[in-house]
Amino acid sequence: MTGTRVLVALALRRSRWFHLAWILGLAVLAPATAAAYETIVGGLAGAGALDVMAANPTMRAMLGPPYDLTTPGGFTVWRVGTFLATLAGLMAVLGVVRVTRADEEEGRTELLRSGVVDRSAPLTAAVVVGLAAVAVLGMLVTAGMVGVGAPPAGSLAFGSGTALTGAVFVGVGAVTAQLTASARAARGLGLAVLAAAYLLRAVADAATDGSTAQLLRWASPVEWMALARPYADERWGVLLLPLLLTAALVAGAFALEARRDHGSGVYAVRPGPARAARGLRSPIALAWRLHRPGVAGWLVGLSVFALGMGSLTGSFGRMIADLPQFEMVLRRMGGGAEQLVDAFYVAMLGLVAILVAVLVVQVWQRLAVEERRGHAELVLSTAVPRTRLALAHLLVAVAVGVAAAALFGALLGLPYALETGSGDVVARTTWASLVLTPGALLVLGLAVALHGWAPRLGWLVWVVVGWSLFMVWVGAVLGLPEWLTRLSPWEPLPALPVEEMAWTPIAMVLLVALGLSGAGLVGYRRRDLGVG
């Protein structure tokens, strides 16, 4: 195919740091967990406690189906395998969209097609680079697990399953890039598919053994790696499922790409009204209109996740009765809480606090997209001051973050409140979620400061988010040094209801966030548009 080789090299160069950061961050997750197996499990392996844990629907919904928890490899697949496969899918969707629909939206693809290249060469290059990235990730996972002493066959199944899960979402990203007319919509649709697959997996894994609902796990691509049973009599035939689905999705993407016009999606964007509504006569109204579709998708996803996770709290009492030895491990995941339900709430709220940070940073960084497209320059050509335009996007981001945190906290506690007949738990989880919101605002402040003074370094904010996610999900369980696990914007904040309420750290974090945001607005007012 004419021009494909050159475009592959170009795509590799443009996305090398993106993929390198993702691959290195994910590749260390599995071997680090396997190396800390004895620290995490302790004496539970020989006490029959692991069998009880494997039968608990709550733990299966949270972490996936366990097949052999008596070995470091089998335990690692259960503890972080599904999470790793899901993040591989996230990397794949974002990576493919950024070199297909995003480049087309910003005019790069049209410039490339003005040369001697085949019509499908840009999509081919994106798919090749995406598949290469997930393949490298799979090889590193395999090598890392073998390096810590895990059996080679199981390690190969683990790495191959992770890579093939990512490959499926390379296909998903390629398809969504053809269906929609904007990179934002393509990412949103791709991530919605990923979230639906993860939720389907959680529901199926929580179902009673032998029930019809458990058959749903075969419909979730993020479950297929675990169903291949690495380190537990591997079932290699299961890996044909992601392989075949990837081939079908990629073929479908090429078929759709051949049918649509350049610059548009299969589903055309409807033209707007000739005149703007009264509600669009201010920068903040315009900012909200730009963010509204994406925010709605995020809130729906967080609501479903909150209700799904909150519905699992009813089985905690039975789990403690059957498995008192595992109490300490679960409390470690929940910040040392005495009550398992509280530990679960702390763990979930700590995870979602980081997702809220992802949401607010995405909202803020839409301003950078508007600058690149020239839309911000059009707005600023009117009587709108530059600071006012930036402040509009900032205020929308803050409001969305607070609303998302409150909504998730309330819905997380709602199932338990309905079960017990007490509404106090809803108030407690809502307040606990809001108390963690200043951490997300601190990350937002960092994003604003970077955009104001050094927009080319805006990627650093995602390093902070990724590090915090790793510490919340894995760091505490691995028994890492305390000074290392405390390097997070959320660490100074009280983890309710485990810790007592403290206003001083909240005020300090908010002051730092406000200072960073103010400095960023000053920098944005002083620098030229599009200049770092």
Automatic annotation (TrEMBL):
Keywords: Membrane, Transmembrane, Transmembrane helix. The chain crosses the membrane at residues 77-100, 121-150, 156-177, 189-208, 236-256, 295-321, 343-364, 394-418, 430-450, 457-481, 501-524. Signal peptide: none annotated. It comes from the Bacteria. This is ABC transporter permease.
